[in-house]
């Protein structure tokens, strides 16, 4: 199990099936906000949350996906993920969701920086993509702060709540990444 200490209070850990109840609670409390930007729903109950985690656990074993919980102390406040990792082309897509109560403290920027460092230094990836709706200003600011380049907009490609949204595509290459690795704690 991977665990990355982001700072004194914040850490990333692989979400495991036994975290399903906590993930379901997070989606019950904040799902309406998450679903404005994410294509998936139905994780408010433990079974739905466990299915979501199980898909990423299987993908982690195959090297094709990754899901980390964002923890502040003992509270699960969000997640960072690689919904796709293509080892052959050495490209991944990164994403994130975070409770409103944990926003505005730089947690997402630090968490995504830790993911990028893992992707480039440990997995040897060449490129990480970040996709977000043009209206998702917070997500765009994270991409900008971390040095991603805006490459364009895919029009009406992203189905959210039965509506098609545009998606901006941002990317960063391994040679452009200058982040420092977070302190690593293996469990």
Automatic annotation (TrEMBL):
GO CC term, one of those recorded: cytoplasm
Domain N-acetyltransferase: 10-176
A Pfam short name: Acetyltransf_3
Gene3D superfamilies attached to this UniProt entry: 3.40.630.30
Statement: the UniProt record of this protein carries the keyword Transferase: yes
InterPro entries: Acyl_CoA_acyltransferase, GNAT_dom, Ribosomal_N-acetyltransferase
Keywords: Transferase
GO MF annotation list: protein N-terminal-serine acetyltransferase activity; protein-N-terminal-alanine acetyltransferase activity
Keyword Cytoplasm belongs to the record: no
Top-level taxon in the UniProt lineage: Bacteria
The protein, known as: N-acetyltransferase
Native source species: Nocardioides alpinus
Taxonomy of the source species: Bacteria, Bacillati, Actinomycetota, Actinomycetes, Propionibacteriales
């Amino acid at each position: 199990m991977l665990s990355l200490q982001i700072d004194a209070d914040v850490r990333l850990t692989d979400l495991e099936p036994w975290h399903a109840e906590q993930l379901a609670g997070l989606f019950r409390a904040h799902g309406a906000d998450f679903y404005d930007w994410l294509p998936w729903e139905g994780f408010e109950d433990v079974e739905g949350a466990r299915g979501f985690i199980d898909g990423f656990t299987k993908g982690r074993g195959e090297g094709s996906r990754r899901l980390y919980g964002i923890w502040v102390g003992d509270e699960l406040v969000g997640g960072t993920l690689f919904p796709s990792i293509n080892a052959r082309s050495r490209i991944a897509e990164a994403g994130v969701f975070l409770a409103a109560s944990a926003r505005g403290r730089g947690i997402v920027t630090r968490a995504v920086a830790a993911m990028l460092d893992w992707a480039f230094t440990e997995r040897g990836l060449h490129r990480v993509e970040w996709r977000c709706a043009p209206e998702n200003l917070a997500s765009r600011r994270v991409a900008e702060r971390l040095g991603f380049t805006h490459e364009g907009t895919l029009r009406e490609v992203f189905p959210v709540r039965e509506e098609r949204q545009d998606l901006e595509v941002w990317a960063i290459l391994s040679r452009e990444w200058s982040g420092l690795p977070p302190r690593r704690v293996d469990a």
